[in-house]
Write a structure and sequence with these properties.
There is one protein chain. Helices cover 11% and strands 56% of the residues. By secondary structure, it is mainly beta. A hairpin with a 5-residue loop joins strand 33 and strand 34. The longest helix has 39 residues. The N and C termini lie far apart (161 Å). The N terminus and C terminus are likely disordered.
Length: 506
């Protein structure tokens, strides 16, 4: 009897197990597959009520109160609250669940695992799956140097800036075959590149040709997330070798689109030279009046100066000027053509014009001053800012005294307005200072002050009570009076003529 009860109970338990709902959670996916800091994505997963293989959908219960839980993860911000309520899942049904998120700007590169916990009413157990979010935060490296000219062996202070993710275990090298190499080592260990840092780099330029060269700097580093990366950055240098017998240095400034008196320093590091002459033969920096300078005797170790009048039709920047050298050595005349780096400075300049509304300017009144800035140089200027300085004659009512214009092409202009209240000053001329700041074509920041004068008149001078004030109305009245008299006289004349003709008719 007891045995029969046991068999009956086992059969009943088996029937219940066969009809109990089975919760199934599919592997989550992330879209897009790779994200950068600041981007948004979605985690998608599918929840299924899987019937038993020995039961029918009619005999399998529905999943009740299904929910998806998740917790905060470093670098990830979920844009929905936990839990996400799925609700009831019928037998055999599948319901997709989406969980939107944002990768924070502070997130590091690599992979982030997001645990997801799925619960349902009739089961104390949680189904757990992990969504893997791939974050890409590559390093963004730029470089600059403290000098533009390299000798045969030289040292440059390289400034390295990283505007992206950290670059760790970084090394610096110069690839072979470029004509340049590091002195004393095959590479320089930098460590972590984050933000801005400076590294002194010893360079051997003896294998490079004289003149303008592109020097390759290769960086190898480990990105956030562990992947290895290699990137090569190039900087332009003018190579001036110490082994050359003659070393030229620019002394005076050369301004674009102008005639310039160019002074060059010439040092003889070799043998004594006789009847030494320099011929200027550049096409963009053209010599005027004379293209020849005679220096005569140039002993070993001596320094001399050569002066040329040149027209700078070249764009701002570093220009390799072509020179032909002629001299006598041991009774034999020799010549050689060399390139000398010449820095051409922009002729950028601005002109300032002031207009006032209403006009004239009256002491104690409020006026709008229009400040017109015109680019009178030959090349574009960038990031133009205008500032109206304090004056003893007025107060600036604008929230900011500095206003941004932007870029101005050559012969272009732009205007900014200032609301000002003039003080109760005496009639006369008063100083007005306009400050302008911009970046020229060669990348150099320029700040200039433009002192101007403005005329201020007292209220009495423009009042109708004075002679000037009533002259115009009186003249207008006189014209009106003359017009009225002429009209009256003509009307009477026409009327009399008409009466006379009527009398003759009778």
């Amino acid at each position: 009897m007891v045995k029969n009860y046991a068999v009956f109970g086992l059969a009943l338990a088996l029937m219940v197990a066969l009809s109990f709902p089975a919760l199934s959670v599919g592997a989550p996916s992330v879209s897009p597959s790779v994200l950068k800091p600041g981007e948004t994505g979605v985690i998608t997963m599918t929840i299924t009520n899987t019937p038993s293989s020995t039961s029918t959908s009619a005999s399998t219960s529905a999943l009740q109160s299904v929910q998806v839980y998740f917790a905060a993860v470093e670098g990830i911000q979920f844009t929905v609250q936990s839990p996400v309520v799925v609700g009831t899942v019928s037998s055999g049904a599948s319901i997709p669940v989406s969980i939107p998120f944002k990768v924070l700007p502070t997130a590091k590169g690599g992979t982030v695992g997001v645990p997801l916990y799925v619960s349902e009413k009739d089961s104390p157990e949680l189904k757990t799956v992990v969504a893997v979010i791939a974050i890409s935060n590559p390093a963004v490296i730029t470089i600059s140097s403290d000098k533009q000219t390299l000798l045969s062996t030289d040292r440059v202070l390289l400034t390295i800036k990283n505007d992206g993710g950290k670059a760790e275990r970084a090394t610096l090298s110069i690839p072979s075959g470029s004509g340049f190499s590091l002195i004393g080592s095959s590479q320089i260990y930098i460590g972590t590149i984050a933000g801005t840092l400076s590294v002194e780099v010893p360079i051997d330029a003896s294998g490079a040709s004289s003149g303008l060269n592109q020097v390759p700097f290769q960086f190898s580093y480990q990105q956030e997330g562990g992947e290895q990366a290699n990137v090569t950055k190039y900087l332009a240098f003018s190579v001036k070798k110490e082994s050359e017998e003659l070393v030229f240095s620019q002394i005076s400034k050369v301004i674009a689109s102008q005639d310039n008196t160019l002074q060059l320093s010439v040092k003889n590091n070799g043998k004594p030279l006789s009847n030494f002459r320099i011929f200027w033969e550049d096409d963009e920096l053209k010599a005027k009046e004379s293209n020849q300078v005679k220096l005569g005797e140039l002993p070993a170790g001596a320094v001399a100066q050569a002066t040329f009048l040149v027209r700078a039709d070249a764009a701002p920047g570093v220009r390799d000027a072509k020179l032909r050298l002629v001299w006598s050595e041991g009774g034999v005349e020799k010549e050689e053509t060399v390139s000398v780096p010449i820095v051409v400075t922009s002729d950028a300049d601005a002109a300032i014009y002031i207009d006032a509304k209403p006009a004239p300017i009256i002491a104690g009144g409020e006026h709008t001053l229009s400040v017109l800035v015109s680019n009178i140089g030959s090349y574009k200027i960038l990031n133009v800012e205008v500032e109206l300085a304090d004056s003893p004659a007025f107060q600036v009512l604008n929230a900011q005294k500095s206003q941004y214009i932007g870029g101005l092409e050559a012969d272009d202009f732009s205007t900014v307005q200032y609301k000002v209240r003039f003080n109760k000053v005496a009639s006369g001329s008063y100083p007005l200072l306009v400050k302008v700041r911009y970046k020229d074509q060669s990348g150099v920041w320029v700040s200039k002050d433009y002192p101007l004068q403005i005329n201020v008149r007292s209220p009495e001078e423009v009042s109708p009570a004075n002679g000037t004030g009533i002259l115009l109305p009186a003249a207008v009245l006189a014209v009106l009076a003359l017009g009225a008299g002429y009209w009256y006289f003509r009307m009477r004349r026409e009327k009399g003529k008409a009466s006379a003709e009527s009398g003759r008719g009778r």
